[in-house]
Write a structure and sequence with these properties.
single chain, alpha+beta, 1 helix, 2 strands, 20% helix, flat
Length: 85
């Protein structure tokens, strides 16, 4: 049983080393989100998806309910993959 497990592990490592990833189109996302709450809250933000050298702006909205008091601003960045036009 241990030999089978070791062979499977070696096969998995070999596959990850020698298999080339697909041609994946990547983009980047930037979001600025503002939120305020007193038990129930809401937020609104602006975002930009950069893909193929072009910026695609969009808006984000959100609601929350729970024990919350305060206000915040979040600046988020990330990557988006497997994009199609």
């Amino acid at each position: 049983m241990q030999i089978t497990l070791k062979l499977a592990l070696v096969a998995l490592v070999a596959a990850t080393l020698f298999i080339r990833p697909a041609d994946v189109k990547m983009g980047s996302v930037r979001v600025v989100f503002t939120k305020a709450a007193l038990v129930a809250g809401g937020g609104i933000g602006r975002a930009v998806l950069t893909f193929d050298g072009r910026d695609h702006p969009f808006r984000v909205y959100g609601l929350s309910v729970g024990v919350t008091i305060g206000a915040s601003i979040a600046r988020l960045t990330g990557r988006a993959s497997y994009l199609h036009q």
